[in-house]
Amino acid sequence: MGSLGSGHAAQFHVLAVDDSILERKLIERLLKISSFQVTAVDSGIKALQFLGLQDSTYQFHQEVEVNLIITDYCMPGMTGFDLLRKIKESTSLKDIPVVIMSSENVPSRINRCLEEGAEEFILKPVQLSDVNKLKPHLLRKRAEEQLSMSNKRKTMKECNSEELTNS
Amino acid sequence: MDGIVELQRQLVEYTTSLYDEGFLDDQFIQLQQLQDESNPDFVVEVVSLFFEDSQRLLNELANSLEQQSLDFRRVDAHVHQLKGSSSSIGAQRVQGACIMFRNYCEVQNVEGCLKCLQHVKNEYSLVKSKLETLFKLEQQVLAAGGTIPMP
C-alpha cells in the first residue's frame, strides 16, 4: 500500500460548469495548467447527469470520481446556486466540495452560497492564483479520507485478530 | 537580425499603447501566461471566441432594442454576458461601456440604452481591430524567426 502523499498523487478531477464557451475554455485551461483533470459542461442539468443524479434520485454509481465542482453562478435555467443546493441535498454527492464563480461582487449572494455549503466564492475573471487556492482543500480532504480509511482497516484487523484469539 | 529586433520593438510599442490607452488590462496578460508550447494558439483561440460571442450578442441587442415592447431584463442579460466575456479577456473599454449600458437598463431608459449600444459597438470594433493588428505583428515576428517578448 502506498504511503500518504508520497510519489505522484493521483490527479484531482474537477467538474466545471459554465454556460459560456469562452469561460469554459478559460477555466479548463487554468485547471489543466494546475494539473487537474477536467470535465467541462454547459449547464447545471448536464452537471447533475454527469454526477449520476437525475430527477433528484441517484441513478448509478459514478465510475469516474469527481473531487471538486466549480460552477458559474449566473446560468439560464438552473443557476449555480440551484446546482449547489441539489448537490448538498444529495446523500451521495453532498461531500463533494463546490466552488461558485461570479462576475458580480454581491455580499448577500456570497453569503447565501457559503451558507448553503459552498467551499469558496471566486470573483471572475478567475485567475491562476484562485485555482491554486483549491489544491490545499483537496489535498487535506484526501489526507483525511485516507487516514479514516486506514483507521477503519486497523480497527477491522484488531476485531479479526480478537475473534481469532477468542475462538 | 536587425529585422527581427525592429519587428519586436514595433510589437512591444504597439502592445504598450494598447495598455496605456486602456484597450486592454492585466487580464490579457493572464491569458498570455496560459499560452505555452503545448497550447501555442491559446490567446488567439480565446479571442476568436470573444469575437464570435460579441457579434452574436450585439446582434441580439440590436434586435431587442428594436422591439415594440422592450424587455429590459432580456437586454440586461445580454449586456451582462458581454460584460463578462470582455472582462475575461481583458477588453477593458468594452467592459466599461457595458457597465454604463447596464445602468441605463436598470432605470429603463431607452434613449440611454440605444446610445450605449452604439458606444459598446464602437469600443468593440476598436478593440477587435487592435487585437487583429497585434496578432498580425506577432505573426511577423515569428515569421522572421524571432520570439514574442513576454510581458
Automatic annotation (TrEMBL), chain A:
Biological process, per Gene Ontology? cytokinin-activated signaling pathway; phosphorelay signal transduction system
One Pfam short name: Response_reg
Domain Response regulatory, which positions? 13-139
UniProt keywords (A-Z) are: Phosphoprotein, Transcription, Transcription regulation, Two-component regulatory system
Residues bearing the modification 4-aspartylphosphate = 72
Q: What PROSITE patterns has UniProt attached to this entry? A: RESPONSE_REGULATORY (PS50110)
Please list where the region (Disordered) is annotated.
146-167
PANTHER family xref list: TWO-COMPONENT RESPONSE REGULATOR (PTHR43874), TWO-COMPONENT RESPONSE REGULATOR ORR4 (PTHR43874:SF106)
The protein, known as: Response regulatory domain-containing protein
UniProtKB/TrEMBL annotation, chain B:
CDD domains reported for this sequence: HPT (cd00088)
Keyword Phosphoprotein part of the UniProt annotation: yes
Keywords assigned by UniProt, alphabetized = Cytokinin signaling pathway, Cytoplasm, Nucleus, Phosphoprotein, Two-component regulatory system
Where mainly located? cytoplasm
User: Which PROSITE patterns does this UniProt record tie to the protein?
Assistant: HPT
Say yes or no: keyword Cytoplasm present.
yes
Location(s) in or outside the cell? Cytoplasm, Cytosol; Nucleus
- The domain of life for this entry's organism is Eukaryota
The record, for SUPFAM superfamilies, names: Histidine-containing phosphotransfer domain, HPT domain
Chain ranges of the HPt domain? 39-144
Q: Name one GO molecular function term.
A: protein histidine kinase binding
As stated in the Swiss-Prot or TrEMBL entry, residues carrying the post-translational modification Phosphohistidine are: 80
A Gene Ontology biological process in which this protein takes part is: phosphorelay signal transduction system
* GO CC annotation: cytosol; nucleus
InterPro entries the UniProt entry points to: AHP1-5/YPD1 (IPR045871), HPT_dom_sf (IPR036641), Sig_transdc_His_kin_Hpt_dom (IPR008207)
Which PANTHER family does the entry mention? PHOSPHORELAY INTERMEDIATE PROTEIN YPD1 (PTHR28242)
Function description: Functions as a two-component phosphorelay mediators between cytokinin sensor histidine kinases and response regulators (B-type ARRs). Plays an important role in propagating cytokinin signal transduction.
Share the domain note from the entry: Histidine-containing phosphotransfer domain (HPt) contains an active histidine that mediates the phosphotransfer.
Name of protein: Histidine-containing phosphotransfer protein
Organism for this UniProt entry: Escallonia rubra
Phylogenetic lineage: Eukaryota, Viridiplantae, Streptophyta, Embryophyta, Tracheophyta
